[in-house]
Amino acid sequence: MITAYVNEEAFRDDACALLRAFYPGETVVTELSSSEFSKALSVRIIRDGDETGQLEVSIDNRSNYTKTGLRNEYKRRLYQCLSAKTGRTLPWGALTGVRPTRLAWRELERGKDPGEASEILQRSFFVSAGKADLAVRIAMRERRILSRFPFGRGYSVYIGIPFCPSRCFYCSFSSYPIDGMRDMEEAYLTALFKEIEFAAAAFPERILNTVYIGGGTPTALSARSLDRLLDYVNQTLHAGKTEEFTVEAGRPDS
C-alpha cells in the first residue's frame, strides 16, 4: 500500500492519479496533513511503511504562478520525481483528469501549427510524441466539425430517460428499474412528446445542432418505444441538419 501525505487539498486528486498510474495494482491512500511540512507545497510518499522510500516534492516560489499554473507545475515535478524513482514514463505524461484535446485545441487557437502544438504538449506535460500527435489530430477534426455549426443560430436538446434494466448502487441520477415501471413507459413518452413540441415552438427559427438522449438507460425502453421517440424527434424538431445524434447505450444487458 502507498500512503501519500499532501498538505494541499487542491492537489490531492492529482497526486493520487499519478501514483496509481506509476504503481498499477497498488492501493493508494491520500491523507491531508498540513503539519507534516514546512515547505509551501509538498507530498510525502510512504510505501509499505518504508520511510527510506519516501519522496518529497516542494514548490517554494508559488507567488510566481497562477492557480492553474501552480497545479500544473506541481504535477510536472511530481511526475518527474516518480519517473526517476520508478524508471518509467507514462504515454500521457503528467496529464490527469483532463481532456488532452482541450490543451491541443488551445494551442491551435493561439495560432500554433500542429507540430508546434504537439511539441508544447510533449515539453510542458511530458506527453509521448505519439499521444501528443494523436491529441492534435483529434483537436483538428473537432475544429472542422464545429466550424459547420451555426453558432448563435442553433440549439441543442437533451432528452432524459429515467429507466434502467436495474438500479446500480453507485448511481445518483433519477432512474428506476424498468421492469417495475413498464406501465409508466407510455405515460412518460406522452409527457416527453409535449416537451418536444414546446422546444420546437420555442425555437422556430433556430437550427437543431445536437440531440443527446441519456438517462438512465435509453435502450431500456422497448424497441417500439425507442423507435417512436426517435421518429418524433426527427419529425417535430426537424433534425435533418443535426450534426450529432447520440443515444447513450452503456448497459450491455440492453
Write up this protein.
There is one protein chain. With 254 residues, the chain is α/β, with parallel strands linked by helices. Helices cover 42% and strands 17% of the residues. It has seven helices and nine strands. It has a four-stranded mixed β-sheet with strand order 2-1-3-4, with helices on one face. A three-stranded parallel β-sheet has the order 5-8-9, with no helix packed on it. It has a two-stranded parallel sheet with strand order 6-7. The mean pLDDT is 88.
H/E series: EHEEEHHHHEEEHEHE
Strand content: 15-25%
Shape: globular
Q: What's the mean pLDDT score?
A: 88
Key terms for this structure?
single chain, 254 residues, alpha/beta, four-stranded mixed beta sheet, three-stranded parallel beta sheet, 7 helices, 42% helix, globular
Helices and strands, with pairings:
Layout: E1 2-6, H1 12-22, E2 28-32, E3 42-47, E4 56-58, H2 67-86, H3 100-109, H4 114-125, H5 129-146, E5 154-161, E6 163-164, E7 176-177, H6 182-202, E8 207-215, H7 223-236, E9 244-247
Parallel strand pairs: 1-2, 5-8, 6-7, 8-9
Antiparallel strand pairs: 1-3, 3-4
Helix pairs in contact: 1-2, 3-4, 3-5, 4-5, 6-7
Q: What's this model, at a glance?
A:
With 254 residues, this protein is an alpha/beta fold. It has 7 helices and 9 strands. β8, α7 (223-236) and β9 form a beta-alpha-beta unit.
